[in-house]
Amino acid sequence: MGRSSHVGHPNPSERLMTVLTDTQIVTASGGLVELGYAVAADTSTTATTAGTATTLATVTFVADGSPVLIEWNVGIVSPPVVASGLLNFVLNIDGSDVRTYWGSVRNDPQGTNYLDNSLSLRHRYTPSAGSHTVVVKAYVSSGTGIIHSGGVYGDALLRVSKIVQATQWPAVTTGTIICTSSTRPASPFVGQQIYETDTGRKYLYTGSTWVSDTPGLVLLNSTTVSSASSVSVDSLFSSTYDNYLIIPRVSGTLNSGLSMKLRSSGSDDSSANYSYQSLTGQSTSATATNSSSQTSWVVGSSYSINYPAQDILLVAPNLPARTSYRASFTQDGGSAIFYRTFAGDLATSTQYTGMTIYPASGGTFSGVIRTYGYSN
Question: What angle do CA 219, 232, 261 make, to 5 degrees?
Answer without folding.
Answer: 100
